[in-house]
Structures are given as structure tokens and as C-alpha cells.
Amino acid sequence: MTPGVTSILLVDDDPAILRLLARWLEQAGYRVTTARDGYEAKQAIERECPHVVVTDWEMPHVDGLELCRWVRGQNLPHYVYLLFLTVRAGLSDLVRGLESGADDFLKKPIDKDELLARLRSAKRVLDLEERLGVLARCDALTGLASRRTFFEFLNREWSRSQRYRFPLSCVMVDIDYFKRINDTHGHAAGDEVIRRVADCLSAGCRTSDIVSRHGGEEFCLLLPETIEHNAATWADRMRQKLAALRIEFGGKTLQITASLGVAQRMSDTATSEQLVDMADQALIVAKRTGRDRVAT
Ligand code: GH3
Ligand code: MG
Ligand code: MG
Ligand code: MG
Ligand code: MG
């Protein structure tokens, strides 16, 4: 999917309508693909999930209503806005269409201005859905993955690591004596410290890793295909980088340290949550033995 451009799948068994609508939509700046029936449409959606499906109702094999119901039953990567086209103008038909999962409908013959206006309205819904997704996936203060996203990623990597016997390591990071920063310099200074620590951790890891904000001043990372020894070496490098940060805030320069707990999946680690618990236990050891250190 090209970012910023709304992609539309047009579905109609009438090639003349497909050509006409495709021309209108392409001229309006949309990226258009076409399908001649619901069956072809399903394949196209599975191949590359479009933002909007504009579908005819009456088609051979799989009709528009069945297509709408099918789309709503799939676990697609994002919400698909469904607009159906119909010559059936009766109230009960429209109700059936909307009940099957469609968002909106348009009566044939299609008016170009109305079609484009309804697609702009679709874009407003899709933008909201996108924003909700970002809010759920990302932490608002740091932009890091949220706890929920972390656990989704963890469960995927957990299965992969079991299936292919890849190592999998987890690192828990907690800022030392963070409460003092808030108490001495204020909550806004504390927030700035959290953001800088987040940036430092993100900059230090690979794209295949995930960094999440787990709670207040606590971060959890997952390092796929990494053994504990290498994760601990990496964690100690991060510990040094965090200690070397100079955080300018309100005319002052703040410095922090952090403690890190490292664990890897062992043959007897029963669940993915247990791996996170093990990293948490190691973190407690790092705190207890003096802070500003890594424990395994
Ligand atoms: P330790 O070395 O044992 O980790 O001590 P600590 O002071 O870092 O730990 P503690 O858990 O006692 O304090 C964490 C503090 O983080 C308490 C809470 O007020 C603060 N906090 C939690 N979330 C936020 C946030 O989003 N912004 C700011 N500024 N502070 C937060
Ligand atoms: Mg038709
Ligand atoms: Mg702390
Ligand atoms: Mg804490
Ligand atoms: Mg251990």
C-alpha cells in the first residue's frame, strides 16, 4: 500500500462500469484495482488489503452481500470501508446491505460527484480508525510500542522461537531512583527523562527487536535470535549509554542510571509470560545488588 494514497478495490461484473469508475477514481488520485466478481475480489483482498471496497450487489458466484459478510469475518490488517452499488432502491434492500457489513451504499446509475463525496466521507472514518490504532499500539509519551503491542509481538516471536529453536531474550529496564527526579525537578522533567531513555533504547536496538514502555519508568525489550550472553552484553552497553546521557531540562542538566534484567527462553520456560517474569526477577536482583547494573 502506498502511504497517504487511498487504495480502492472496485468490484463489478459489468466491464463498462468497471472501466468508467476506475477512470473517475484514478483521475481523483485513488489507487485502483478491479475485480469482476466477489470471488476475484476475495483473492485481491487477501493479496493486498485495500482501504475501500466499492462493490456491485448483483454478481455471479459470490455477490456483493456475501462479499461484505466475508470481509467482516476476516482478520484483516486494518478496517476496510465497504461501499455497495445497487439498482435496488427499496428500504429493505438497503437494510440488508448495511446489515451484511457495508458502511454505505450508492444507487445506480452512479453519479460521479456523489461517489467522490462518499469516498471523502469514507476517508474520515478510515483516518479515525487509523488514529485509534496508533493510540492502542503506541505509548503516547514516547511513541514506543505499548504493553499490549509488546505481548502481541512476544507471542508471535515465542511460537517462532519454539518452532525453529531460535533463542529469544527479554530485557527489562527500570530507571534508578526515578521518583527523586520527579520530586526534585517536577513531573515535566521526569517525562523528558522517560522520552530520552526511550529514544536511547530505540536507537540502540535492531529493527527486528521491539522496545516497549511497560509502565511508568519501566521498559521491556524483546531480542529475537539472541542468546542471553549477547543480550547481557548489549544490555551493559545500553546501561553505559544511559549513564552517559546528559538531559537538558529547564536550564539544568540531568543525569540518570538504570538497572537491567536479562533472561532467555530456556527449554523449561513454560509460557511467554514466564520469560518476562524471569527478566523481571533479574531486574530485582540488579536493583538489590546496587543498581546501575545488569543481572541475568
Ligand atoms: P528504583 O530505583 O527502585 O526503581 O526507584 P524509583 O524511584 O525509580 O521507583 P519507584 O517505582 O518508586 O518510582 C517510580 C516513579 O515513577 C513513581 C511515579 O510517580 C513515577 N512515574 C510513573 N509514570 C510516570 C510518568 O509518566 N511521568 C513521570 N514524570 N513520572 C512517572
Ligand atoms: Mg451486477
Ligand atoms: Mg525505578
Ligand atoms: Mg519502576
Ligand atoms: Mg537467569
* Mean pLDDT reading: 95
* Secondary structure category: alpha/beta
Count helical runs.
10
Sheet with most strands: strand arrangement: 2-1-3-4-5
Measured distance between first and last alpha carbons: 42 Å
Q: Cofactors and ligands present?
A: 3'-deoxy-guanosine-5'-triphosphate, magnesium ion
Low-confidence stretches: none
Note the topology.
Layout: E1 7-11, H1 15-27, E2 31-35, H2 38-47, E3 52-56, H3 64-73, E4 81-86, H4 91-99, E5 104-107, H5 112-137, H6 147-164, E6 168-175, H7 178-185, H8 187-204, E7 210-215, E8 218-224, H9 228-244, E9 247-249, E10 252-254, E11 258-264, H10 272-288, E12 294-295
Parallel strand pairs: 1-2, 1-3, 3-4, 4-5, 11-12
Antiparallel strand pairs: 6-8, 6-11, 7-8, 9-10
Helix pairs in contact: 2-3, 7-8
Walk me through this protein's architecture.
- The chain is α/β, with parallel strands linked by helices and 296 residues long.
- It is built from ten helices and twelve strands.
- The chain is elongated and about 75 Å long.
- It binds 3'-deoxy-guanosine-5'-triphosphate and magnesium ion (4 copies).
